[in-house]
Amino acid sequence: MLRSVALLQRNAGRTAILSFAVFFAAACGGGTVADRTAAISASSVPSFGAASTFAVLGGPAVTCTDSSIIGDVGAGFPLAPVTRTNCVITGIVHEGDAAAIAAYADFLKTYDAFQALPCDQTLTGTLAGVTLTPGVYCFDAAATLTGLLTLNGPTNGVWIFKIGTLGTGALTGTNFSMVMADGSVPACNSVYWWVAQAATLTDSTFIGTILAGDAITITRGTFSGDAYARAAVTLTGDALTGCPGVGGRGGGGGHPKDHCNQGVGNGPEDCDPGNSNHHNPSNDENGGTPGDPGRKR
């Protein structure tokens, strides 16, 4: 009897020690990134509010030269200009109007929400040849990126990168690109880049949404995602396609993914019923029950 009690006490002690070890490893960053970031998904992304329908949104100005933009474009200061030189914009242009001002105000709130997200891991280097599972990755200061970054995760996985988490830091990407582990192209609504200061991209195949604390400058290359900046956004020789994103985000004026064109019962679209083409009476925006199946709102 005494021996049985002793064995029970010893096993209980081992269990307690093991539990503490697991807790300590998790608290101190142990284990794999996949273990610590399993909860990162689309539901983890802060809301963009009124900014959600813009592909490009700057504060004092947006300048587009020898470029193309698919999605709505706005400058969020009152009467701020959107300057176009040989620039094709497939979307609505808002030059400091009420819609742009409201969107810019919501972007600032979203910027702060991303800033508050805790980091899963701190990174250094160019990210060339690196493979990352979903999570929140941080650079203490500036990040200079080049080469190919591989993302390995599920279709609903989310990768959030925060540049300059100690207070200052710019994002610089040159000949930088991303790919999924299976060789496919990452969805633009799965990658987000929060930057304490400016973001400068050159000759890059960039994917994701940038939220910059200063200006965004994009030169040549392609950009699949949304560009939001506290200061000006400047595109030169670039092709930018706004992202439909979480909850139908991005490019309402020329972004077909935002339209409701399914009939009720064909499954959820997470679309905007007010931004749709009424081709037939079965379109979701004409009725139905919100939810799944049917239209969502």
Task: Explain this structure.
It contains three helices and 20 strands. It is of the alpha/beta class. It folds into two domains: 49-241, no CATH class; 259-297, no CATH class.
Relevant terms:
32% strand; 9-stranded parallel β-sheet; 297 residues; 20 strands; alpha/beta; disordered N terminus; 3 helices
Mean of pLDDT: 78
Shape descriptor reads: globular
Structural class: alpha/beta
From the alpha carbons, calculate the radius of gyration and give it in angstroms: 22 Å
Q: Please give the number of β-strands.
A: 20
Please give the domain count.
Answer: 2
- As a percent range, the share of helical residues equals 10-25%
Strand content: 25-35%
User: What sequence of helices (H) and strands (E) makes up the elements?
Assistant: HHEEEEEHEEEEEEEEEEEEEEE
User: With helices defined by DSSP (H or I, 4 residues minimum), what is the helix count?
Assistant: 3
Report the major sheet.
Answer: 11 strands, parallel
C-alpha end-to-end distance: 66 Å
- Model regions low in confidence, pLDDT < 50 over at least 5 residues: 1-39, 251-297
